[in-house]
Amino acid sequence: MNQVILIGRLTRDVELSYTPSTQQPVAKFTLAVDKPRREGQDQGADFIRITVWGKQAETCERYLSKGRQAAVQGRIQTGSYTKDGVTVYTTDVVADRVEFLGGGQGGQSGQERGRGSAPRDNGRTGGSGNSRANNSYNNPDSRFGFNDFDDLPDTFEAAEDDIPF
Description:
The chain is mainly beta. It is 5% helix and 36% strand. The protein is built from one helix and six strands, in the order E-E-E-E-H-E-E. The chain has one helix at residues 55-63; strands at residues 4-10, 15-18, 25-34, 45-53, 69-83, 86-100. It has a five-stranded mixed barrel. A hairpin with a 6-residue loop joins strand 2 and strand 3. The chain is globular, with a radius of gyration of 17 Å. The model is unreliable at 106-149 (pLDDT under 50).
């Protein structure tokens, strides 16, 4: 089985391009995923290259930006190429699903870039309306160390213009 799930923050804005022959959209970005914290050491992060295809690629380019938090589900893909006579090996994640999580830190949101905004709740509140609860049952993000949701409203009201599709 080849399946991976990652949660992290974008290190730069999404790069969208189209395949030459079929004009299929393809988006690429890098996700900084925190490493487990070890006693006496800095936490550090792994930088994982992500590739997204199709309509979801265009949606990612529209709503994700540097600093935004995202969850990615997909598969690992390895490859290699030769550069100046040296073989370079690559490891990427080809995403099947990308979910937009909390707002960015230090980066521009999609709204600031003039592109609208994505839904902000993403099921985190479990219908309770209390996104700031500290126990992991009510706030699954706390299990992963993401407790910086001070900018989120206490309640969520969906509107048609909030839906990215």
